[in-house]
């Protein structure tokens, strides 16, 4: 005897709609608000990603489609190779690579202009429970970056992973004020680039 029974069904009428994720609300904050209130938590928001071999045009289209200004560059999901931002796409970096390698712009790939893992700043997720939005703003300003990654230490059976990120644009929206960030060179080649 089969213990399973077919569920009752019914026909749909016009006007039925698809359920959608609740729009992500950007609640107003102050500089004294908890730092976690402005973090994009990748356990609740899907990370926007792209492959290193993708073209810069594909990266730009992906950013537009997903409504973001930064993509995680992944080789084998979920392994991160780095990230690429809208600034990387439109800044001096692509033209520098074009001149150095004798390529055309449309031949460049994400790997050519992305920021590798070794050049990314990160904060420990565990330290954020007592941090404020003001602390996050100070961190962005200190390093002159638009984004700072949040890394969760390895646990039982889980490797170290990027848990989230802070975005200057998102924090500005929630604070209701502009955050002035001056880019800071982190290597001699970046200083040389800035001077040329």
Break the fold down into its secondary structure elements and pairings.
Layout: E1 40-41, E2 49-50, H1 56-66, E3 70-74, E4 80-85, H2 86-90, H3 93-101, H4 110-113, E5 115-116, E6 122-124, H5 133-143, E7 147-152, E8 161-167, H6 168-175, H7 188-195
Parallel strand pairs: 2-3, 6-7
Antiparallel strand pairs: 1-8, 3-4, 4-5, 7-8
Give descriptors for this structure.
CBS-domain, alpha/beta, globular, disordered C terminus
Descriptive notes:
- This protein is α/β, with parallel strands linked by helices and 196 residues long.
- It has one domain: CBS-domain, CATH 3.10.580.10.
- The chain has seven helices and eight strands; from the N terminus they run E-E-H-E-E-H-H-H-E-E-H-E-E-H-H.
- The strands form two sheets. A four-stranded mixed sheet has the order 1-8-7-6.
- The longest helix is centred in the N-terminal third of the chain and has 11 residues.
- The protein is globular and about 75 Å long.
């Amino acid at each position: 005897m089969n213990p399973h029974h077919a569920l009752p069904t019914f026909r749909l009428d016009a006007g039925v709609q698809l359920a959608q994720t609740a729009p992500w609300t950007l609640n107003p904050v102050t500089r004294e608000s908890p730092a976690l209130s402005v973090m994009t938590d990748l356990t609740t928001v899907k990370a926007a990603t792209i492959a290193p071999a993708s073209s810069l045009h594909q990266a730009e289209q992906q950013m537009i489609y997903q409504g973001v200004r930064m993509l995680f560059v992944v080789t084998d999901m979920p392994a991160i190779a780095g990230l690429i931002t809208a600034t990387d796409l439109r800044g001096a970096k692509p033209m520098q690579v074009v001149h150095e390698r004798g390529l055309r712009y449309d031949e460049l790939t994400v790997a050519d202009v992305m920021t590798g893992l070794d050049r990314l700043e990160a904060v420990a997720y565990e330290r954020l429970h007592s941090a404020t939005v003001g602390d996050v703003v100070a961190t962005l300003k200190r390093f002159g970056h638009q984004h700072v990654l949040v890394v969760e230490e390895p646990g039982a059976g889980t490797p170290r992973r990027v848990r989230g990120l802070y975005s200057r644009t998102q924090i500005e929206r929630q604070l209701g004020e502009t955050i002035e960030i001056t880019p800071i060179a982190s290597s001699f080649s970046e200083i040389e680039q800035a001077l040329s």
